[in-house]
Amino acid sequence: MLTMVNVVTTCECPSDMLIASNKKTCVRPCSINNGNCSHSCSNTDRGRVCVCPSGLKLADSQRDCVKTCQVNNDNCSHVCVDTFNGSLCRCPQGLTLQVDGKTCSSSSSSYPDCI
């Protein structure tokens, strides 16, 4: 007498690919819902990497692109201004932008011996 046994096959994918919803096909991460990236998705040998257009920066989520000033004020000590190419730090009246392009300080504290 011959007995039929249900065989369950488990498919596995290489580390840089994902198993598709059919549980049989391996696909690149960016081919499923754009890799959950808000803008562009790039497949790499380690999986997907989200990429942002000029003027935007990848948020901590590693999926969402935000204006550069939205992430830690882009390390500007006072005012951050988003531009097409990124951001610029600005200082309030009475303060001067320092050489680092990020820090504002009073002119008198930068050169204490000058009048």
Average residue-wise pLDDT: 86
List how many beta strands DSSP finds.
10
- Structural class estimated from helices and strands: mainly beta
Strand order in the sheet with the most strands: 1-2
Shape: rod-shaped
Radius of gyration: 25 Å
Task: Please bin the fraction of helical residues.
Answer: under 10%
The topology string of helices and strands comes to: EEEEEEEEEEH
Largest beta-sheet details: 2 strands, antiparallel
Q: Point out poorly predicted stretches.
A: none
Q: Give the termini distance in whole angstroms.
A: 106 Å
Percent of sequence in beta strands: 25-35%
What count of helical segments does DSSP give? 1
Q: What does this 3D model show about the protein?
A:
The protein is 3% helix and 31% strand. The longest helix is centred in the C-terminal third of the chain and has 4 residues, at 107-110. The model has no long low-confidence stretch (mean pLDDT 86). The radius of gyration is 25 Å and the shape is rod-shaped. The strands form five sheets. The protein has a two-stranded antiparallel ribbon with strand order 1-2. It has a two-stranded antiparallel ribbon with strand order 3-4. Strands 5-6 form a two-stranded antiparallel ribbon. It is mainly β.
Short description:
It contains one helix and ten strands.
What key attributes describe this structure?
115 residues, mainly beta, two-stranded antiparallel ribbon, 3% helix
Secondary structure topology:
Blueprint: E1 18-19, E2 26-27, E3 40-44, E4 47-51, E5 56-58, E6 65-67, E7 79-83, E8 86-90, E9 95-97, E10 104-106, H1 107-110
Antiparallel strand pairs: 1-2, 3-4, 5-6, 7-8, 9-10
